[in-house]
UniProtKB/TrEMBL annotation:
<protein>
    <submittedName>
        <fullName>Uncharacterized protein</fullName>
    </submittedName>
</protein>
Length: 234
């Protein structure tokens, strides 16, 4: 019967298409590979960390005042927001109540994307354990989640070559108008083809209108995509 191999081939093609929309955390090291379909309990659509606990064992030293986050994106465009949760008395972080990107970022292009410095909005003690949550939303309309576990260290540095942006990548702050002369200098995150520390690679934390941006992002829901994918165990 020919319909069985045809169905298998169709399912494989659908998986490849869906997985191609997932993203990776390059730095800090993510908890685990959430793209690998070998574990049915892992899915980037699972809040808050793709179904992966912080007992995965990967923990990266990260600067006390804030550091870089490097991603590999697979959508033609992606909304990105990044949150932080502190570990209380060694417990698994479940409350990501601190925003490292108070201004939503819209990234255009697939490939390597890095924010060279994200400020931590409070004083953190040396040796504090925490988790960084990265949330993305692309043209499929669903939020995807990945997490990376960190330890705050005063002497932590980003490894050479980790923070880079591919030439086809560009990014803007959502909720700002570049026509406003008072805001135009901070509305664009210029990342094209530059490594961390370059004068052409920067992020502003002074943009306004984030409430409208989050409302717009969270309102993008494609029910058909959800139904098609949820039944496949991703």
């Amino acid at each position: 019967m020919m319909f069985i191999p045809t169905l298998v081939a169709f399912a494989a093609a659908v998986f490849v298409q869906l997985a191609s929309g997932h993203f990776e955390i390059v730095y800090p090291e993510w908890r685990a590979d959430s793209i690998d379909p070998g574990n049915d309990n892992i899915s980037q659509w699972n809040y808050p960390c793709a179904g992966i606990g912080d007992d995965a064992g990967n923990r990266t030293d990260w600067p006390l005042t804030g550091g870089a986050v490097a991603l590999k994106l697979r959508h033609p465009w992606t909304y990105i927001y990044i949150n932080l949760g502190l570990s209380i008395q060694g417990a698994n972080v479940t409350n990501f109540n601190m925003s490292l990107t108070p201004d939503l970022t819209n990234v255009t292009g697939k490939g390597n994307f890095c924010l060279p410095h994200l400020d931590v909005p409070m004083d953190i003690a040396e040796g504090t354990h925490a988790s960084i949550q990265i949330v993305t939303n692309g043209q499929d309309g669903q939020d995807m989640y990945n997490c990376a576990d960190i330890t705050f260290r005063a002497n932590a540095k980003v490894p050479d070559g980790v923070c880079k942006n591919d030439t086809q990548i560009s990014a803007v702050i959502v909720g700002q108008s570049t026509a406003d002369s008072n805001q135009s200098a901070t509305a664009t995150v210029t990342v094209t083809g530059q490594a961390a520390g370059s004068t052409s690679t920067s992020q502003s934390s002074s943009a306004n209108g984030i409430a409208e941006a989050y409302t717009m992002t969270l309102a993008i829901v494609l029910g058909l995509t959800f139904v098609a994918t949820s039944g496949m165990g991703f």
